[in-house]
Amino acid sequence: MKNLTLKTLAASAVLVAGLLSPAHAAGDAKHPEAMDWSFNGPTGTFDRNALRRGFQVYKEVCASCHGLSQVSFRNLSQDGGPEFSEAEVKAIAAEYTVEDGPDSYGDMFERPALPKDRFVEPYPNENAGRAANGGAYPPDLSLITKARSGGADYIHALLTGYSEAPEGVEMRPGLYYNPYMPGGKIAMPSPLLEDIIEYGDGTPATIEQMSSDVVQFLTWAAEPELEARKRTGIMVLIYLTIFAGLMYFSMRKIWADQH
Ligand code: HEC
Q1: Residue 106: left (phi > 0), alpha (psi -120 to 50), or beta?
Q2: Residue 255 lies in a domain
Q3: What CATH number does the domain containing 231 carry?
Q4: Cα angle: 157, vertex 29, 195; to 5 degrees
Q5: Residue nearest ligand 1's atom 2 by CA
Q6: Mind listing the pLDDT tens digit for each residue in 148-157?
Q7: Which domain range does residue 145 map to?
Q8: Does the beta carbon of 149 lie inside 6 Å of ligand 1?
Q9: Is 114 a member of any domain?
Q10: Pocket of ligand 1, candidates 53, 65, 217: which has the most ligand atoms within 8 Å of its Cβ, to mutate?
């Protein structure tokens, strides 16, 4: 009898642990490796060169399928980001064409993008995006590092984690095996291939390098004020420490007179 109770207890413990484990919540997806990002921790900052390279990866690889609708070109020159010069930002924007108008005749017209414009969407609408990708919609990447649990670590693992489907896993055409994607199947073919781009600064374009750079760029895009926020946090801590010290000594002084 006692044995049976113990067994039941053990079984329920296993069941509860199973229900609570994040692997279960994520549909048995492989857990992403925790990376040592420069922006981690209370004093973390972005690596400017990585942000610039990451922008290049986004622009030359991801932008053909994914929008970045919350970012405007001029954000690229702001403090705490890739910090391109204003002339560089003008040149980057001018490579894109946007629709503007109506003009004085009431017609819409096209013009080269200006720094105030936002990144140009790859598709005119969601249906066009789905039609081009076998029914799956490539999500906007502006907030993706915040929108997915695991954030930067998850996206890095996803981009570098493509592999052959294991024995027994049936893959429909247009789906690719990726153990980090909940369910193991993703409609995005591996976007990064060795040397698919040539970095402006000469860094070798390995899959690992491009993935790490683009993830840092996307983390910045999702939280452009990260460095300012961390600076404020540190200032508040310093202030509170000094304030606590002053309080301590003044209280001692005040109470010393009471004896
Ligand atoms: C050929 C088009 C194409 C390219 C190029 C492409 N993607 Fe995708 N991506 C997709 C599609 C389609 C999906 C939706 C997949 C799905 O839902 O199964 C997707 C999904 C994603 C997701 C979301 C995964 C999730 O958890 O739902 C991320 C993150 C992502 N892509 C990042 C990137 C990055 C970064 C690049 C550039 C290095 C890139 N993609 C290049 C088509 C593309």
Answers
A1: left
A2: no
A3: 1.10.760.10
A4: 25
A5: 65
A6: 999 999 999 9
A7: 26-71+119-245
A8: no
A9: no
A10: 65
